[in-house]
């Protein structure tokens, strides 16, 4: 049975449009936006005016929590503010759905996992890149064994956005603020857990970021799977999709995904005859899963979170799972800083 949850939104910057559009279009019967908080009072007022004019607005999360007693807090603050805001929300008795990354370092993320456990409240992370039609289709095809046992996953991410704002000065900007999506997706597709990583991070010539706009990382995963990541936020021309461009190689074939709706598969036909230099391959057509707005992007993650609250179950990006994706980020940074391959242990 669906409940209507009283929700406070903290952090009212650019990404909240995606959240609030989803709430308005998909979840108006399940989400009541009762408060908007931002250290910039105008930002809170502007979002409230657009999406919930009757809601409380202010600059203090503590006041909002004490006055409004929300069931849920949506945390859309900047990464450095996630530890304090999510902790305050959980300790006030609210469940939290937070923007990625869960925190700005692993020790803070572990602290949040512990607070969620002691309060018994749900803490989950928006990993909206799992919720695109192409990604859902690829995952289903791989799980059905279309290319046999998966052993190699390559992801290329090459874009050149000029954000301005907090990212321009952020340390490890690509790894911390973006690669979490690709690393999390590699777990989503492979079902494997990270074991070790070697990462080289650099700031390419002409970069308009202060730090770490490019990185290349090799992860050894469970089940003998290797994930190769090559990424840049400073790569002009011939850009990839934001979802990355992917190559999956299994024992019997290869699946390519362009990050949008282009999926191609070739796999070998039958067994090797003992003579052919290259085994013959066949093309396999993969039908895209239906386009379902309620399962796409932020709406997909918010819906899964609300469903889990209603049913008393666990969403796929609950902190106890998502921490493994975040560990990939943290250990890639540790490897980049030390120049060494590092083991990933939680
Ligand atoms: N899932 C995605 O696809 C996606 C895309 C973009 C950004 N994000 C994430 O969303 C978060 C916000 O990013 P953004 O692009 O909206 O940034 P932004 O700079 O546009 O907005 C952040 C807002 O948080 C407010 N804020 C900062 N500290 C605060 C605090 N302690 N209490 C209350 N408000 C505070 C700022 O005043 C600002 O209005 C980041 O964690 C970012 O990584 C996710």
Q: Any idea how many domains?
A: 2
In the predicted model, the low-confidence regions spanning at least 5 consecutive residues are none
Order of helices and strands: EHEHEHEHEHEHEHEEEEEEEHHE
- Tell me the CATH topology of the largest domain: Dihydrodipicolinate Reductase, domain 2
Helix count, DSSP H or I runs of 4 or more residues: 9
Major sheet attributes? 9 strands, mixed
N→C terminal distance: 36 Å
Strands side by side in the biggest sheet = 14-13-12-11-7-10-9-8-15
The best one-word shape is globular
Please state the structural category: alpha/beta
The unique ligands bound to this protein are:
nicotinamide-adenine-dinucleotide
Level-1 CATH class name of the largest domain:
Alpha Beta
Please indicate the percent range of residues in DSSP E strands (runs of 2 or more).
Answer: 15-25%
């Amino acid at each position: 049975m669906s409940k209507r949850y009283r929700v406070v939104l903290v952090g009212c910057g650019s990404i909240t449009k995606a959240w609030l559009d989803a709430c308005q279009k998909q979840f108006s019967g399940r989400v009541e936006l009762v408060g908007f908080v931002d250290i910039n009072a105008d930002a809170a007022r502007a979002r409230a005016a657009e999406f919930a004019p009757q809601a409380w607005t202010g600059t203090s999360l503590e006041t909002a929590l004490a006055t409004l007693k929300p069931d849920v807090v949506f945390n859309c603050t900047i990464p450095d503010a996630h530890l304090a805001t999510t902790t305050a929300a959980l300790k006030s008795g609210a469940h939290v759905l937070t923007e990625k990354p869960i925190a700005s370092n692993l020790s803070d993320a572990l602290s949040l996992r512990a607070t969620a456990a002691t309060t018994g409240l749900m803490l989950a992370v928006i990993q909206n890149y799992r919720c695109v039609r192409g990604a859902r289709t690829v995952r289903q095809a791989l799980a059905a064994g279309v290319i046999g046992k998966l052993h190699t996953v390559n992801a290329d991410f090459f874009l050149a956005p000029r954000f301005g704002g907090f990212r321009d000065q952020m340390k490890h900007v690509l790894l911390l603020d973006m690669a979490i999506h690709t690393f999390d997706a590699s777990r989503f597709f492979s079902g494997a857990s990270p074991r070790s990583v070697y990462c080289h991070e650099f700031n390419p010539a002409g970069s308009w970021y202060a730090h770490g706009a490019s990185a290349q990382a090799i992860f050894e995963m469970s089940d003998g799977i290797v994930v190769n990541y090559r990424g840049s936020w400073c790569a002009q021309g011939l850009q990839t999709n934001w979802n990355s461009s992917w190559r999956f190689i299994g024992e019997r074939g290869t699946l390519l995904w362009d990050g949008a709706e282009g999926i191609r598969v070739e796999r070998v036909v039958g067994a090797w005859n003992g003579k052919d230099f290259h085994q013959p391959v066949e093309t396999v057509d993969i039908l895209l899963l239906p386009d379902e707005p309620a399962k796409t992007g932020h709406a997909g993650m918010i819906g899964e979170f609300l469903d889990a609250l209603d049913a008393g179950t666990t969403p796929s990006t609950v902190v106890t799972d998502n921490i493994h994706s975040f560990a990939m980020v943290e250990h890639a940074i540790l490897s980049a800083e030390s120049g060494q391959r590092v083991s990933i242990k939680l």
